[in-house]
Design goal:
The protein is about 30% helix and about 25% strand. It has about 350 residues and is α/β, with parallel strands linked by helices. The chain has two domains: about 140 residues, 3-Layer(aba) Sandwich (Rossmann fold); about 180 residues, Dihydrodipicolinate Reductase, domain 2 (2-Layer Sandwich), CATH 3.30.360.10. The strands form three sheets. It has a seven-stranded mixed beta sheet. It has a six-stranded parallel beta sheet with strand order 5-2-1-6-7-8, with helices on both faces. A two-stranded antiparallel sheet has the order 3-4. A hairpin with a 6-residue loop joins β14 and β15. The two termini are about 15 Å apart. The structure holds NADP nicotinamide-adenine-dinucleotide phosphate. The site of NADP nicotinamide-adenine-dinucleotide phosphate (NAP) has 27 residues, from α1, β2, α2, α4 and α8.
């Protein structure tokens, strides 16, 4: 049994992490929720009771086996090395460590053995990358993907608690006929689609888009080209992605469906005759990456289109981190002797 800390425990992902640990019956002897010092002493709900929040900081990790971090990149840059130096293994949800060559970046369905190289910190990929790669990996193994063109339709919860509160507030303002106030997003997000997530970088793409490129190379294959467009939409929970792949080998559509049907972490939901395809609302609170609308692309020699939806707070963040913890346990991690 392990002592597990959740850092950023009062946030959107932290809350989901605690729920996911509970749902999956992770072998926990003590849950240690942590947040900013001002929140120390607050309570979080866990297994029918309440657990007090500890201030994250120097000395806080001395009794921790695994620390699941979801407190943002600034906090992770400072706190993850402290936690690792105090003997905890960090699974970090932020972008802080993902591209560090000494830090494994892991999707358990895609590159589970990468965890073996960790030196105290393991990174959880970006939510959009995770669901894209869970769906692409079985097709890459069978047909060798050369290029991915992806457009995302990302929920506001990807921006955390403040972003969710802004969409809810704008819905209330609209219903009451009030002026709609904008602060978290660059435009009104209610009834809108904004092609801008994170900051713009020199090549005209956004940082969110470039994360999908670089993380795909690190996790799955540096030879796969990725052409991304990331869009925020007025949805609370669940990212959707339109994915077009071009492969080296010819794709047999029926076989591709069979491969996805048995792929770990994937749920095929694809029968247009019965209007069966995934939407964000269908996937709310679910663990799987849902795939539908599979069609061969007749405009290229070997191509396929698909629609991929997953709960960004669950597989896109909390579940993937907890699965990395499960991998560590499976690979023989011993609880520390204090
Ligand atoms: N939401 C997603 O879909 C998603 C997916 C993948 C990865 N992530 C990543 O996960 C991280 C958290 O995201 P979120 O959506 O949960 O954001 P959030 O709702 O804003 O939650 C962040 C939590 O961390 C706390 N925090 C901030 N600084 C801290 C510190 N120094 N020590 C301890 N706690 C601290 C915050 O407290 P205050 O609010 O009081 O500052 C808040 O409770 C981000 O790096 C994000 O990029 C999110």
């Amino acid at each position: 049994m392990y002592r597990v800390a959740v850092v950023g425990a009062l946030g959107a992902v932290g809350t989901e992490m605690i729920k996911t640990l509970e749902d999956r019956n992770f072998p926990i002897s003590t849950l240690i929720p942590m947040d900013i010092p001002e929140m120390a002493g607050k309570k979080v709900r866990y297994r029918g009771g309440e657990v007090e929040v500890r201030a994250a900081g120097k000395g806080a990790f001395k009794d921790v086996d695994i620390a699941l971090f979801s407190a943002g990149a600034d906090a992770s840059l400072v706190l993850a090395p402290i936690a690792a130096s105090e003997g905890a293994i960090v699974v970090d949800n932020s972008s802080a460590w993902r591209m560090d060559p000494g830090v494994p970046l892991v999707v358990p369905e895609v590159n589970p053995d990468a965890v073996d190289a960790h030196k105290g910190i393991i990174a959880n990929p970006n939510c959009s990358t995770i669901q894209m790669l869970v769906a692409c990996k079985p097709l890459h193994d069978a047909y060798k993907i050369k290029r991915i063109v992806v457009s995302t339709y990302q929920a506001v919860s990807g921006g955390g608690g403040p972003a969710m509160r802004e969409l809810a507030a704008q819905a209330g303002q609209y219903a009451r006929g009030e002026e709609i106030k904008v602060s978290v997003f660059p435009r009104q997000i209610l009834f809108n689609a904004i092609p801008h997530i994170d900051v713009f970088v020199d090549n005209g793409y956004t940082k969110e888009e470039m994360k999908m490129v670089h993380e795909t190379h690190k996790i799955m294959d540096p030879a796969v080209e990725v052409s991304p467009t990331a869009v925020r939409v007025g949805v609370f929970r669940g990212h959707s992605e339109s994915i077009n792949i071009e492969t080296e080998k010819p794709i047999d559509l029926a076989e591709a469906k069979r491969l996805l049907e048995k792929a770990p972490g994937v749920k095929l939901m694809d029968d247009p005759s019965r209007l069966l395809y995934p939407t964000a609302l269908d996937c709310d609170g679910q663990d799987a990456v849902f795939v539908g609308r599979l069609r061969t692309d007749p405009t290229v020699p070997n191509g396929l289109n698909m629609w991929v939806v997953s709960d960004n707070l669950r597989k896109g963040a909390a579940l993937n981190a907890v699965q990395i913890g499960e991998l560590l346990v499976k690979k023989g991690l011993k609880p520390r002797k204090l």
